[in-house]
Structures are given as structure tokens and as C-alpha cells.
Amino acid sequence: MNLNRGLKIYLVLLISAVYLVSFSQMGVKAYDAFLSKGTFEPGTLIGSVNIENMTKEQAINELNQEVAAWFKGQYLQLSINEDNTVIGQDFFTFDFSATVDSITSGASNELIISVNQTVYEEQLKTLLNERYDTIDHEQLQAVIEDAVKKMVPENQFFSIGAYVKSDLNTVAAENFVSTSFDYNLVQRVVDSIGTITVPAQSQVSMLELIEKSDNLPQEGLNVVSSALYKTFLTTNFVIVERHTGHELPETIELGYEANIIKDKSDLKWYNPNQSEYTISLKLTNAGLLVRINGAPFLYSYKVNLEEKTSFKPKSIIRYTSLLEEGQEKVIQKGKDGLSVKITREVFDLEGAFVESEEIAEDFYPPTHKIIETGFINRLLNNQSTNDISEETESTKQETLENDESSEEDNKDSNTSGNEEKSNSEDIWETPSKNAIEK
Questions:
Q1: Contact yes or no for 145/365 (Cβ under 8 A)
Q2: Closest to 130 measured CA to CA, from 364, 349, 399, 375
Q3: Ordered alpha helix ranges (H), 194-253
Q4: Rounded to an integer, what distance in angstroms lies between the CA atom of residue 349 and that of residue 124?
Q5: 3 state SS of 153
Q6: pTM of the full predicted structure?
Q7: pLDDT digits (tens, 9 = 90+) for 352-398
């Protein structure tokens, strides 16, 4: 009986122990489950915001604060040429509640946002004016939305030129050259070059365009390259290399010469834009038309020619025995020298002045007039010393100097009268024809 009683006590104690242990374990799990209800596992991110172990309400508050702080960093900027505009938080509409409800715990998630069309259109239409319609806004909005969803803490610049509609083919710039030139010579160059493609952010060389063409006329090359250069000055293309000649050709306007010499002088330009351009050359009876097709430039440009100056040529006289007395022959015609300063004014989309920049200073030295004239015949006909002294001032001066030198020598050496006569005859000896020509 005592054995049965002891067994009963043992069983009661065993059951009590199991019950207590089970209750304590289940209680802990129930307590943990209660406290952790609605929290997110470690590694749960929304953009760059960590919300692990937070409740839904805490996660929403955290998102609100972090998004506001991120936009204060001005990480998103829209580039229009050289100007940058900050893309602020008011560009977007955020749904933090829907974001938290849809996230995957323990993973990286994105914000649920949309572009505030009212703010977007108001600000971009102000910035772009009539060029607003040339932009692919769907593509631009998708890109900036994606940047906000990731919330990377670093500066990101979005060039508006990269979002010009791809099917847009407007005339971005054009120029017409109507100076007198040889039509056939220019046509040969135009046919050789054809349509010029200028890729985005790339450099183009005139010499490379014509490297496979032989014997292109110099006049035609200079007319075409100068017309291109003048057109580029009305764009934001960067002139990398450009040369002028020693003398301004009659077919080129002052300030716009771009001299091309194979393997020596080139015209190079760089397209800094995010879009490609094409250049067409069309020769008409009235002149040469240069047209640049592609996305409109966001600034307008005005070229000015300032401080135009001319320099009168000198006359250079050459004496020759091949001409008679009084005869003259013009060997080289004189031509005025020229100089000019080329500047460019930049205006924004609303026509407001932005800046003025100096492009170049061109200088052409004067071409002096060269005249050949005959020697005085009496130098060749044994005339008297008095006749000779009347011919030129230089001959007279030389005679006086020689006379003084001769007299001084006579005094010092105490020479005889015969010796003086001999010296005098040597001085006034008529030069030979060969000596005069030398």
C-alpha cells in the first residue's frame, strides 16, 4: 500500500512538472507574439530607409521624416544647358500607408509615388517655354520617379536634352551664304561631303569628312567650311579648332573664315548635347544653305562683329634698268589689312540676356603695293657731276659725304693737286650697267 501511495505521489509530481514547464514555454511564446505583433523582420527596407522591428505607424512616421530630409539634400536636379533646377518634394505625391501595407518583410521595397502633374507642368513650362512640347515627359517622369523610389543619398543630374522626343526633326539652326563664289567648285565639295551626322557628345573633323576625296578645290573647301563655322556660332556647338589664312578671300565674309588645308588646317567642332544632329548642305542659284536638324537648342545666340579696323598698305618702289626713265610697272596691287573681334550674346528661353562671350579675333595684315620703276638714263650716259647730283637725294648725299671724306684725307696726307684731281675722277666714275643692276 505504501508502494502504491508513493507511486501516486510520483505521478502527481511528474504531471505537475510537465505542466509547469509547458505553461512557461507557451507563455513566453505567447508574450513574444503579442509584443511583436505588426513589426517587420530585420533587413526590411523602403528605399534606403530601414524599418526593421517597427510597427506600421512607426514605419509611416519614419518614412515621412526620412523622405523630407532626403529632399532637403537637393539630390535631384534638372539640367537645362548649364543651369540646374532642383526637383523638390512638391513634384511628387506620396502614399506612405499603401507603401507600408504592400512591403515584403525582410526585403528591400520601393515607395509608392506619382508625379504631381500640376506642379510638374507649371514649373517645366516656365523653364522650357515653347520647347516644353519637344520633351518626352513620360520618359523623364519615369526616370525621376525611379530615382526617388531608391532614395540614394548622392547628387543626380538629369539633362533635359536627353529627353527630347526621338522622332523630332526640327530645324535647330540654319545659315545662308550668298557671297559670290564659283558654283561648280562649291558643288564638288557639297557632293563629296553629303549629309553630316553629328553624334551626341562627339567631335567631328572637316578633314576627316573629306579624307577619302582627292583634289577637292581650295575655294570650294573654304566656302563650305566657313559657312559651317558661321552656322555653328548660332548653336551651343564648341569650336575645337579653326584657322584663318594670311589674306581674307573675296568669297568669305570677314569674321567667318575657316581655312582648310589638307594635313595642316582643320575645322573641328564638338556636340555637347545628349541628342544627335544632322547637317545638310544645299546649293542654289542664290547661294549655299546650311541647315542643322535636330532637337531645338535651349538657348538662342546672336553673333556680333566688333572693332572692325582697316590698315592702309604701303608702297614699295623697286628700281630696275629694264624700264625706261619715267616708266612704272605695278608688280603687286596693294590691299588693306583688316581686323575684327567676334563676340556672341547668349539669351535664355524668354529672351533675357544671359552672357556675352568672346569667340575670336581675326587679323589680316595689309598687302603692300609693289612698283618697279626705271633708273634715270643719265646715270648710264656719262653725264657731268652736276647733272648727277640733281637726280636723287640719296646720290647727292653720297656725293657730299665722299667729297668731305676726300678733302679731309687730302689735308691730312698733304697730297698734291694732281692727286686731288685723280681722287675726284674716281668718285664720279660712271657706274657700269651691271653695277647698277646689282
A1: no
A2: 349
A3: 206-209, 218-232
A4: 12
A5: coil
A6: 0.57
A7: 898 999 999 999 999 888 888 886 644 454 444 444 344 444 443 44
